[in-house]
Amino acid sequence: MNILSIESSCDEMAAAIVKDGKILKSSIVSSQIDLHKKYGGVVPELAGRHHLELVNNVVQSALDESGMVLADIDLFAGTRGPGLAAALLVGSTAAKSYAYAMGKDFVGVNHHEAHILSVLLEHENVEFPFVSLLVSGGHSMVVIVDGLGKYRVIGQTIDDAAGEAYDKVARLIGLGYPGGPLIDKLALQGNPKAFDFPRPMKDEPTKMSFSGLKTAVKYALRDSENAKIEDVCASFQAAVIDSLISKTRFAINKLNSEKLKTTAVAIGGGVAANSHLRSQVKTLSDEFSIRALIPEKSMCTDNAVMIAVAGLIHYNLRGPDGLGVGIDPGWKISDL
Amino acid sequence: MIWKQNNINLDRLSDVAQIFANIFSCGDVVILKGDIGAGKTTLVSSITSLLGTVDVVTSPTFAIVNTYEIYPKVKGLNKIIHVDTYRLDHLNEVYDLGLETIFDEEAVTFIEWGEKIEEYVDKNHFVIEIDESQPEDRNFVFQIKGEIPRDRQNKIEDELVRGGWENYG
Fold first, then answer.
1. Which helix (H) or strand (E) holds A264?
2. What is the pTM of this model?
3. Superfamily name with CATH number, domain A127-294
4. I need a surface site. Which of A3, A229, A292, A303 has the fewest CB within 10 A?
5. CB–CB of B165/B5 below 8 Å?
6. CB distance B59–A83 less than 8 Å?
7. ipTM over 0.85
8. Shortest Cα–Cα distance, B53 to chain A (Å)
9. How would residue A260 be classed by pLDDT, with cut points 50, 70 and 90?
């Protein structure tokens, strides 16, 4: 079964074709290809009505890359939420329109669930329950995955997301955008103990907070003129990752205490591409002697492949969605 | 109409939020200005929970728009819309995002980094500026932009005076 999926929850317009939920045929992310050169038109920095100009080109590009035509597609999937309404509407309506025009089924997908389930593409025989750490520019949450479609949010940020902290700290330091990869690179050459940045919500195992950390970096930069940028980056990164790992460890212990043995720890979202987080999650998995489900870096940032993977799973579980189903910008994973 | 309150310690932020929660009602648009770390999101979060939402209010920087339901309605208010234009570089991106469609007569709308789109908000609105005087202290400026009914203005002034704000004309 060939699934064509469209993801447009925020900045990216993406399309992918995946066969049987396992075999990747093509994956197009608007910011990563030169659509201007290929098709003409403008690639916007942000989501919105520009998505409308991009969507058909991105879908055509996914078809071209796979060597398929629309008639080869058996199922269309689109992100219904959570995300920015103006952006979600474009991708989701496009996927429904293709389904209607081709006389095929449509399935709507939750963006967060797709990030969590994306590990199923690259890892065989994943068992439940497992703990997933979902960290991106917009979200930071620890989720217990009891089964397909069964999620419990155990911890989440009460202010800024982890990826947002990276980007704002990068701006404070004077680095470019996106800040995450730049800080990650500089941190490798710095001393993570040079600055004793706070680990907020240390005694609140279900809450994360990164807003105060951003402010702490601001004062460190102001008060120590000779601060090495590498040291600031390394110390900041250590504080963020320490928090993420400790909340994840809490969720694993919680799940184990319910006599449901945690089988694995997974990560997803843009911050999951961070080298320090990846190595710390591996260490955490060793601590509990469980599997570490770490996606390829290209699968961490927003993409449509994960929408196809989650779309097929839901299609098999509960069948298609009607074409009347709308978007849901605030769709919570616990409400699935 | 400019009102000010200086050197407020961050542990008194909830008092400031309470005054604003008393002032704001359905259909209001509030623009927040201030540097990174000034406390814009924290203030909105504090006002929002006082207005009646049960959700955790997180930063809308990446999502650009977050919406919080208030159920059941409180004085006709059924949601809080929390916008952040930090990531917008050009005014035309505001049009691209369809932000003009989000204003809602049954909501209070907060817009962080709102200076970028203030010229675009032709509706009467309020402005809150937060400025760091000390790491733990903030100066606040509150402005009413446009014409509002006289009786509402009187009520707002009463609240501000009670909260220790000073009128700068």
1. strand A264-268
2. 0.90
3. ATPase, nucleotide binding domain (3.30.420.40)
4. A229
5. yes
6. no
7. no
8. 14
9. confident
